Amino acid sequence: MKRFQHLLGPEGCGSLGHFSRRTLLGAGAGLAWLTPLSQLLAASSEEKSSSGRPKSVIVLWMQGGPSQLETWDPHPGKMIGGDTKAIDTSVQGLQIADTMPRTAEVMHEMSLLRCVTSKEGDHERATYNMQTGYRPDPTLIHPSIGAILCHELSAEGVEIPRHVSIFPSAFPSRGGFLGNQYDAFKMYDPTGPLPDLPKRVPEDRFQARLGDLDILESSFAQGRRFDLEKNKTLHRKTVDRATTMMTSDQIDAFNIDGVPTEIKEQFGDTPFGRGCLCATQLIETGVRCVQVTLNGWDTHANNHELQSARAGDLDAALSATIKHLKERDRLEDTIVLCGGEFGRTPKINPAAGRDHWPHGFSVALAGGGIRKGVVLGETDPEGEKITPETKHAVRVEDIHATIHHALGINIDKDYQTPIGRPMAICQGTAISEIIADA
Amino acid sequence: MWLKNIAFIALATVVLASIANWLLSPPKVEAVDDPHVVVSDDFQATQEAVDAQFHEVWKARDLEPAPQADDLTIARRISLGLTGSIPSLEEIRLLENRPEEDRLAWWVNHLLEDRRYGDYMAERLSRAYVGTENGPFLIFRKRRFVTWLSDQLMSNRPYNELTQDLIAESGLWTDHPAVNFITATVDQDGTKEPDVARLAGRVTRAFLATRIDCVQCHDDNLGGDLKQTDFHELASFFSEAQNSFVGIMDQEGKSYEYKYLHAEEETTVPAQVPFNQHLLAESGGTLRDRLAGWVTHPENKPFARALVNRVWAVMTGRPLVEPVDNIPLNGSFESGNYPAGLDPLVDDFIAHNFDLKRLIRLIAATEAFQRDSRAEHQITAQHEQAWASYPVTRLRPEQIIGSINQASSLSTLNADSHVLTKLVTFGETNEFLKRYGDAGEDEFSMDGGTIPQRLLMMNGNLVSERTKQNFVRNAATRISQLSPDNKTGIETAFLCVLTRRPTEHELEHFVHRLESDEVKSNRTQDFEDIYWALMNCTEFAWNH
């Protein structure tokens, strides 16, 4: 019974990690693209201890359900392995699919769960499950990781939305019962300015318009539900936040046009790569959670070709994200999670595809509070289901508990839902094997 | 020469004054004919039965109901629910010239006869039937489908007959638009045949408000008693449907094979319904005919419940049972313990041969529909929950764009509008929906607005285009130039955008704004600013 396949060999701390942040900031051309504000924030944050900085999460969301067999958990030479070959990684003895060579080089920065199970095999329900840690419940909507993080951490100094979804999927991250103000801000390819930000009229007229709006809002509030704005419409709040955002320098973080070409190329010249680069900028500016979606993993037909293509996009962007966060001394404050709804069947179907498989799939984690180079669990050579009794199944809610723990959020805390029902932040148990301070 | 100039100025003044008079004075009221509304005794009886059930709930929960809303507020709700936009100034004038006692009933009838009703309701219903995707290229004709549906609604075709067509019609997707219900599921990548599983899911959700999708892959393990076999036996009714060059046809005897979970091999799945089996005809017609007969059987109450719940939701923004397409068949529902209002409306709907327009008239006449969303006493979430006050619900994106367009025109935008206006509106609507975010099938979610939506309303093209100086197209400009005085101008702007008159405080504020020089602007710009504020406030974006 092998709980651990490996504990990390190399220390996982490249030489760059030993540079101080200020040294890096002053390092010249390579970092010149950092916005002055980002530099300011970064410099100011250096005053605090690393552990004192609020933490952030980047979720790389593999929409459609990536195949564990073509990515993190190849079975070369076996019937279930298909055409995928395995390659060595920077963790001794660990192999991943040859579709992800650059990721293999940074595996020592990551931990890998190869034994995740869930009970949801439908895209919408499984997305909900993975993003909230709860299974769908018709009576209420649970908040996603980003919503909880924003709810728990102060918004001081951040003038842009703190929960962002780049290329949002059909089922985006939501604030749920915490409120719509915690919904993810949706954006697309981070080139060019965000639409609708410039005002249409001069400042004095704009201010007069806002004054008119105040009069109308007070009229509307009279005699209606006392908590209408706070618990339902959030209209005035949204206007305020939109207005603040319109005038903020921080909006530069939504745009990667000024980034040197060579850095863009490291992330891959794909929308997903640009999204990941943007995510690192947003995190540096104070955004607490960024989800970047890579679509196209639902490969019921022609599995190998499609999965390999997606894995190629992921490989460049994921490895560059890890490296950049590390280089900028942000990896210890940022958790990077890479996963999708579920895995795909060991059996290859007659259309050369793989179908949905929530019975044993892989999720990768890296960053602050997560141990490095740990691989937990294993899949059966024949791809049999992982059950709670075998292979040390990791439940979806356990991943959530682990992330919350790493973020310093008390998972024993109960939220009071609008229908008066107490609801735990998380139902799972933190996975002690991959927690850095366990 | 100066005489000529004076004559010209005089003439221009007269012309402008006439235009102003024509635009801003109450339009001539049509001859007051007999009220269109025929209120039969049993209409009254059903209405009273619904009201009585709500009263019972309010009493049991110790909730003091809000008073009845004023006519214009109720008219706005009805208009948003039936046409997807607010009333025009022209319509408000017409409405206010009706005798008070039949005003609202007349208003409902007026809208039910307007093509906007058919088009809007068809769009809303079609989401439940075929989703919001464009569907398979060529063989799925969404536009034809929605237009056909709109025609059926305008002629008030009994809803059971309409549904039977959707489920069982055969022929080409152009000549027999109802078959698009089937062709929407044709899978272009795979079999190029109708997807029996998706059809089973659609039929149960859209027509029976029952979700059985989750037993497609395995038996219900969440406490329900539905089996995987239930799902596929229902799907089997569509096994004969096939897609060919003559459209959707039925190949008699074609069977449905499926390999159940844990089964060794595929088995032939018989066609069977998951409940009320005794209502299924044993023979006669195609499999789809038999299924349609079962779904719409007067004793198969989930059918009527599904529609009543959905129409209530379309008209108010919130269904009686949430989610809209999941009314339990068991638990308290099994013993007939339904939420207030549902049962009497369902019985009436069935007893009156699935008359949709009658159902709409009934809903609009109920006390629950006509409660105010404000009161002298404190309104709470519990009031809203029990319909003791009208729930404030967010307008759907298409209602927002419909209302922006209508508010920027003094006359009614409908089928009689100029073709150019219709074309521009069509293009703008699509662009706006893309940016604002279509609610898709999840159209009754209670989410508040988002920052991108606010930015779009505050700085986006559409609001800017519809409020800026444009005498031909924009109401803001016309009001600024033609209103005889500031007070009338402000009042007209409020009626156009918020379907109400300003309060004294608002009037004072906005008149002062027009008369002061604190901000450098001209009168047209002032009205542009006022329109901007009216379109950006909570009141405009929410039903209340």
Automatic annotation (TrEMBL), chain A:
Q: What Pfam families does the record point to?
A: DUF1501 (PF07394)
Q: Which domain of life is it from?
A: Bacteria
Q: Which SUPFAM superfamilies match?
A: Alkaline phosphatase-like (SSF53649)
> PANTHER family recorded for this chain?
BLL7424 PROTEIN, DUF1501 DOMAIN-CONTAINING PROTEIN
Q: What is this protein called?
A: DUF1501 domain-containing protein
Q: Which organism is it from?
A: Blastopirellula marina
From TrEMBL, chain B:
**Which species expresses this protein natively?**
Blastopirellula marina
Q: Which intervals hold domain DUF1549?
A: 50-242
Q: Which domain of life is it from?
A: Bacteria
Q: What is the protein name for this chain?
A: DUF1549 domain-containing protein
Q: Which InterPro entries match?
A: DUF1549, DUF1553
Pfam families per the UniProt record, alphabetical: PSCyt2, PSD1
Report the residue ranges that make up the DUF1553 domain in this protein: 288-412
